[in-house]
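Standup notes
- DV: blocked on the single-chain target, sequence here:
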Amino acid sequence: MFEILSGMLVYRENDEQQLLMTSVRRYYKKEPHKTYKHSPSTPPTHSMIETSLRKLCSVSPEDQRDAAAEIRLLSKRNDDNRVAIAKAGVIPLISQLLTSPDSRTQEHAVTAILNLLIFEDNKSSIVSAGAIPGIIHVLKEGNIEAQ
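- DV (later): unblocked, structure below
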């Protein structure tokens, strides 16, 4: 994870970079990531991603929170899911939730993005979506679970 984030943090100020790295360390101490076997995304998984995408586009905060939680779980499973989530166009939408007034939505969104970062090819999409300032916002302003 540190290698993934290091390339994204080159342009950040030292205080923000330190805050982000400290928070990533805490995250990995709390939830160590397991290595999963690659298994192709199944049609039900694609269906779940599409449903989550519709919920992310909803004006309902509850739908958005539910979608962020679903993406968080799907993105944790394997690289195939991470690829499918990115291809579906979820990254810009979930990045917007980083500034949600709902702390649980923020927690799900930041964790989903960190899970998506595990797959190297998602890095540029996440940076392009403007997620880095949102991640820093959650780390500075979010609740302890989101941090």
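- Follow-up: Residues 1-12, 31-39 have pLDDT under 50 and may be disordered.
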